[in-house]
Write the structure tokens for this entry.
Amino acid sequence: MSSTEAHRSSSLLEQQPAANARAFGAGRALRHGGKVLPEHARGHNRSLLLQTLFHQGAMSRADLSRETGLTRVTISDLIAELIADGFVAEMGVREASGPGKPAILVDLDRAGHRIVGIDLSGADSFIGAVLTFDGEIVARREVPIATDGDVVGGVVQLARDLVADADAPVLGVGVGTPGVIDDHGVILTAPNLRWAGFDLQGALARALEVPVLVANDANAAVLAEYTFGGAGDDVLLVKVGRGVGSGLLASGQPMRGAHFAAGEIGHVTVGTDGGPVCVCGKVGCLEAWLAVPALTERLGAASDDAREGILRDAGERLGIALAPIVGVLDVSEIVLSGPPELLDGPLAQATVETLRARTLAEFHDGVRVRMTEQGQDIVLRGAAVMVLSGQLGVS
């Protein structure tokens, strides 16, 4: 990270009110990579220590000094502060391997706090979970989507129940939801939930009195892939369910767009040969070809011999939509999230073939298309990363 980028990251961290979750969005790198100028250093260096422990586990103070380049005095001061705040704990002494006093190891106090994650992208129900800092689910709840119109009340009650389920103080609540969401957690539009201009983040924060972050479900999912799935700094995740959306990281930064609608690929028209009518009223949108209900319906009416052709056609349409993104941003990895019985196999292979045919072979033949290993919990785990990033600067 350059000093300019680090300056920007630290400034964003320090300017947010302590009572609120910090924003994570375009312009802020998810991970800190080095020291910054003294006047901006404390918030950055604090996150740098937490980030190092998060990924590398228990270390001595001397280890942290060598790893981060910070002085031992700075390390000791910050570790004492983080222990007092309940985010770091001493883990005992390292086994002696020579003369001298054994080093005391420190690590994130991974049992000291919990995170609540909520996924509102389901067709029939909302799911939520209590998670550890490592993304492990320790409690889970699922509630049907209210049919009486009180959707907000159902979400608030789900969140309250999950906070009550936590066996440690809750660091924050992360929510992944369909729709276009701004930097303040206001849902600009979410037609499936009948929300427009709705401040979901504010409503939950007032009800729960804990920090809350709200983001698009696909944007949450790509964070899970980045933190827990081993994805690189340039990755596109395509989430296929009731609709089709995508989340994008470029150079380790979440891409939100000028109108917070980056990744809304579901209503890109793919092809000039007509096609099914989309719920938006257009003909031939990617979502009309690829969304789970539409694809399942076509497969259900097809013979066994025709199934592969239908899946390959959907994969080709996806490749048509993704090729310009790969060409413009030089994305090296595309991750698919959704039912593996639909996406893995012929569909994914046709996507790869289409990408190679429609981009510059010299640079993009190596683009990898793979299924996520996060399963159906990917949005929940991404919501946890939102809180880790927003509250601790860790991802």
